Amino acid sequence: MNPTIAMITFRSMLGRRRALLLLALPALLVVLAVALRVTGSNDLDVSAGVLQRFGLATLLPLLALIAGTGVIGPEIDDGQIMYVLTKPIPRQVVVLTKLAVAVVLVAAFAAVPTLMAGLLMSGTTEGMAVAFTAGVLVGGIAYSAVFVALAVVSRNAVTIGLLYALVWETLLGNFAPGAKSASIQQWALSVTDALTGASPVASTVDLAVAVPLLLAVTLAGTALAVVRLRSLSVASAE
């Protein structure tokens, strides 16, 4: 990991309009949790539904998409990546640094608010808040690797990412069991399911299958980003 690249990337991400989205989305989750707590509508079923549908299925992929594509995509689009490519920095270090920044952003703006919302709604009951936080973290790492790779491979990374998150995982997932099982969301939910005894939480994928798949997707996305960045010449970046 390169500290200079990390610092510049953090400054870029937190200084743009993306920062407003990074703050707005988790704020909605926390506000919803407070409202449910105040109105007494925070039973275990409702709390699990909010954390799964809003936190894991909506907040996480959108934030990971913003972070994953934002840490490197704009630099490639406007040619600023050429200044990095001309330095004696291995491409894998560049990719791993960008990925690390994306993961930190997802942890700060998705995992922490999920923990806060879970504790507000259900407290420590069945360890559900911590379980969903863990699911968001592992899912966030996989999502970030995929979206960083998309940003390096395509200028339409945001559109492709939205299609995957909203169409494949959400729309098709409700009608096609196969599509539902082949999704980062369900693999992350499997980790959550393994960490809590709350009956409303149930994944369609076994933990023994979900963990290797999460690891494989993370490694594959990172490797693809490194390979593609190596093939990106300074001339093409200009």
From TrEMBL:
The chain crosses the membrane at residues 51-72, 93-116, 128-150, 157-176, 207-227. Keywords: Membrane, Transmembrane, Transmembrane helix. This is ABC-2 type transport system permease protein.
